[in-house]
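Q: What would this chain look like folded?
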Amino acid sequence: MSLTPRPLTLRPLTRAEHLAFVAERPSVSHTQVPSWGDVKPDWRAESLGWFEADGRLVGAGLVLLRPLPSTKRYLAYLPEGPVIDWDAPDLERWLEPLLAHLKARGAFSVRMGPPVVARRWSPEAVKAAIADPGTHRLRDVPATSCGPGLGLAERLRRMGWRQSAPGGEGFAAGQPRYVCQVPLADRSLGDIHRGLNQQWRRNIKKAEKAGVKIVRGGPEDLPVFYGLYAETAERDRFIPRPLPYFQRMWTALTAEHPDRMRLYLAHHDGDVLAAATMLIVGGHVWYSYGASTSRKREVQPNNAMQWRMMCDAHELGARVYDFRGITDTLEESDHLLGLLRFKVGAGGEAVEYAGEWDFPLNRLLHKAFDIYLARR
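A: My prediction, written as structure tokens:
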């Protein structure tokens, strides 16, 4: 006779409880650690924990609450979370207490991004798809391997969750559904170097011959990074975040863990040509923000800097080096295709996650918020 599991209890966690839970996990998103709430002052952050009847903490999530203008109602957002047993056959046991708690907190809608892989494409499969003029989107390419995210989507739909519509810039875009990751686990540095394409290996050698030096920076170097980042934003036509955002990120993340965030700078003859931030949580390392100048591109500072970051991630014992978001579009006319080529050239796999999902607790306010976001 099978016994029905007792309901899970959900309650707020202290930072110490949340961090202890994260430390026991092989991989947790940097957007699901307590300090990420300090990076987002426009949101109210709360750490939540799921407890078994015997008092064991078995799940955790960072929820960000954003008020609907002129009301005391909130959009509740768990970016790339929560960190729960997504394979559990009784997923309602996990998600129903979450919805009940957030409804009591005044949430009119809940958005989450299950950190569950749906599909993966090898670098070779992506390169072949880019070269095929008949292939227009990554989602139409047969996957090299599939994960539990495909089945999870159907389960969430049956429970009343809706897949979030992809948006434009800013919050509406949410966290990336498609990312590029270089696997590091059980691979030597030589293996990883052999996984780079010929152009990458050539560019790294060229940077070394030209005398490009990659150095670790500190908070005092953030204005230098920002100057390059602002130039990149103008060149690539996106709206840059302000300098205080990066300063706040550095302060918050490194206060939580001294090696949670790193800054790398590419120097050449007294000139800083490129810079990038790197985030570290357990065995997962992310390339977060990158910036470069148009000057002296021929000395290939970006390849040299990324290779140094990958080497450092490997030295840390990381299982994956995550290049973050990539485009799903394989059209030559898409200005983001070059970035996809760059990341896949480093031996990166294309990875599709389950995507972001909404549960409207108040359909009228949920619709009103969608309209508000669309008008911004």
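The chain has two domains: 9-113+356-375, 119-144+178-353.
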